[in-house]
Specification:
- The chain is α+β, with helices and mostly antiparallel strands and about 120 residues long.
- The protein has a two-stranded antiparallel ribbon with strand order 1-2. It has a two-stranded antiparallel ribbon with strand order 3-4.
- A hairpin with a 6-residue loop joins strand 1 and strand 2.
- Helix 2 crosses helix 3.
- The radius of gyration is 20 Å and the shape is elongated.
- Bound molecules: zinc ion (ZN).
- The site of zinc ion (ZN) has 8 residues, from helix 4.
Length: about 120
């Protein structure tokens, strides 16, 4: 019988054999904080005024958003012990995908409306 390597729970710091920990994938953006490529309403305004930097930022942001799910560089695997995994999964379900998807689609619809309106 081979022994499992000791890993550390990313949330509470408990050390346990790897087979007793749960592996979870997180978005590394959450650890790094705000991306420098993030855009806001002023970027869209700049795009409408013909600012080339804003147009570039928007297309980069849209590209990045649509590929976020599949990009390995933006996700990270962490070990979580059984005490922490339930709360981690719960908070992930509550604060995660739905709201950011809604935001993405709201922006896409806004762009379409702006293009049609102009
Ligand atoms: Zn833990």
């Amino acid at each position: 019988m081979s022994k499992y390597a000791i890993r550390t729970c990313k949330i509470c710091g408990l050390k346990k054999p790897a087979n007793e920990l749960y592996l979870r994938t997180i978005n590394s953006d959450l650890l790094k904080g705000k991306s420098s490529r993030d855009i806001n309403m002023w970027t869209f305004l700049g795009d409408q005024l013909g600012d080339k930097k804003s147009s570039k930022a928007i297309s980069e942001w849209l590209f990045q958003s649509s590929n976020r799910k599949y990009s390995a560089s933006r996700t990270k695997q962490i070990n979580i012990c059984e005490n922490c995994v339930v709360s981690f999964d719960n908070s992930n379900n509550l604060s995660g995908k739905n709201s950011s998807n809604f935001f993405t689609w709201a922006i896409v619809i806004l762009i379409i409306l702006l293009i049609l309106g102009g």
